[in-house]
């Protein structure tokens, strides 16, 4: 792949140039995501900028016509997201140009992203490999059927700051690598629950304000029953209000539980990776799996 990316690109009648996503007006980023129907608020963009890096495509009068971001998790792995080009600029090569710039900035890095249908072909052309489907479930939350008893010997409680290290260690195999910075940041802005067997954490869950309401994720658990046990208090907390869950589980008891909570599948995206060993963990290897993502961009 040729990673010599030109500094300028002629796009139709436009010429766009790169700028750092950190240096542009938040409202311009917000307007860009609104233009493609994404629900992000200005605060959501700011939270993403606090954690990641990115480039925007600016025209000659500094209007933001495109954006792309990456979120490093350690030295050699990053998630990618927020790839958007303004509708009037699409299919002119701008998204590819932004992506190539990011790839050229991060030599030796493996990547994971969640691709919309519109972007899948672009990522394939950059050698990304399709891994699995993400089901974006959302709606007005309602209380699911009566709770099963907690798994034997388990205790469900709100997480405390002193639990954060246990969450980071538990999450790492499910996510692919440790993500201490991101989890610490999510911890600050989220309602967090943990399920403990004795002293050992066997599941955790977080929910926070995002987009049209709240998002429930990440959820990490050893088994589906434990995932449901830590998801339930968030659904109770947001009953009657907009709630969203991004999950790889499209069938089975976790998917049924999410549907029962009034959150049908709204859309799907596709997890794709570039590089080895950076897909999500799976259930059943007694290391825990991610039942819900923090977000499509951060994984
Ligand atoms: C997806 C998106 C970023 C693509 O942006 P773009 O500027 O049109 O992409 P490019 O012009 O760089 O196109 C790159 C490749 O995708 C192809 N492509 C672009 N739009 C396409 C479409 N609607 N259908 C099929 N192929 C398409 C181009 O032909 C090109 O293919 P090539 O590399 O084989 O020549 C843009 O449509 C968008 O912002 N969509 C809404 C937000 C979104 O879905 N973002 C992706 C998040 S993962």
From TrEMBL:
Keywords, sorted A to Z: Transferase
Ranges where the N-acetyltransferase domain occurs: 16-157
GO molecular function terms listed in the Swiss-Prot or TrEMBL record: acyltransferase activity, transferring groups other than amino-acyl groups
Protein known as: GNAT superfamily N-acetyltransferase
Native organism: Rhizobium rhizoryzae
